[in-house]
């Protein structure tokens, strides 16, 4: 089964585009991302991004201002949460790493659960740009799952049953934070959202599932039951047949579509020994159709 449209491959002026798998991804070579695109190139890159969901630009070396300039060509940069803010000099470039304050590997890898970036926000991220700065000798992959393919693989009766389903995306309620209550500032920065489970991609008009680790529970059910339903849906959505695993090469810069992919870091390297450092910028998306804020009812976390 292929989730990608079958028409002839779209071209980017001056670049070579090579599909990476049947479910998503295309490698782009021959472009220098430190230089601004002309309009035709920018539009072609965006079209390829919508079509393949994940672009892998090879052989790049961007500093932080250059990564910001590259990102801004496609929209508005997203601010990061207080915990994730980058250096004071470039707060819009988040340093994703396993390094501690002293610059040494800690053994801890973040973002190892399936998610889509900032899905708890009223305007979840449209795209994330992740640029490899330091890679471990091997491993440290990033794994992606295609939520269009996952939706399309559902039988029609399941699609119908889920047509009106809603999901609470909540940083406060989502599982990985159970042991780490948010600070008041983090709570203010991240009120919970109620999004449709099935969203229509604003560019391709294709339908896709919107889930991930910030998805707390299915709306209208007690927390435990709603959470169990989300786990079932996520198990389907992240099945191996919808996945692409990215094995990083030096110089890679990835740009992926958060509206229709889930992703996670694979800690398949010795994170106590080897440094892994990425520079990350995010583009703000639009509010998905039908999304509304969700106020967590008193005592709900115990239901
Ligand atoms: C991210 C993320 C995964 C990785 O930057 O949003 O989830 O492999 N990164 O580091
Ligand atoms: Mn992420």
Structure commentary:
By secondary structure, the chain is α+β, with helices and mostly antiparallel strands. It has one domain: Clavaminate synthase-like (Double-stranded beta-helix). The chain contains six helices and 16 strands. The protein has helices at residues 39-52, 64-72, 147-152, 156-162, 184-189, 223-237, and strands at 16-19, 26-29, 54-57, 94-97, 125-134, 142-146, 166-169, 192-196, 198-200, 207-209, 215-218, 243-246, 253-257, 261-265, 277-284, 292-294. A seven-stranded mixed beta sheet has the order 1-2-3-13-5-15-4, with helices on one face. The protein has a four-stranded antiparallel beta sheet with strand order 11-7-8-16. It has a three-stranded antiparallel beta sheet with strand order 12-6-14. It binds N-oxalylglycine and manganese (II) ion.
Quick rundown:
The protein is α+β, with helices and mostly antiparallel strands. It is built from 6 helices and 16 strands.
Could you outline the blueprint of secondary structure elements for this entry?
Layout: E1 16-19, E2 26-29, H1 39-52, E3 54-57, H2 64-72, E4 94-97, E5 125-134, E6 142-146, H3 147-152, H4 156-162, E7 166-169, H5 184-189, E8 192-196, E9 198-200, E10 207-209, E11 215-218, H6 223-237, E12 243-246, E13 253-257, E14 261-265, E15 277-284, E16 292-294
Parallel strand pairs: 2-3
Antiparallel strand pairs: 1-2, 3-13, 4-15, 5-13, 5-15, 6-12, 6-14, 7-8, 7-11, 8-16, 9-10
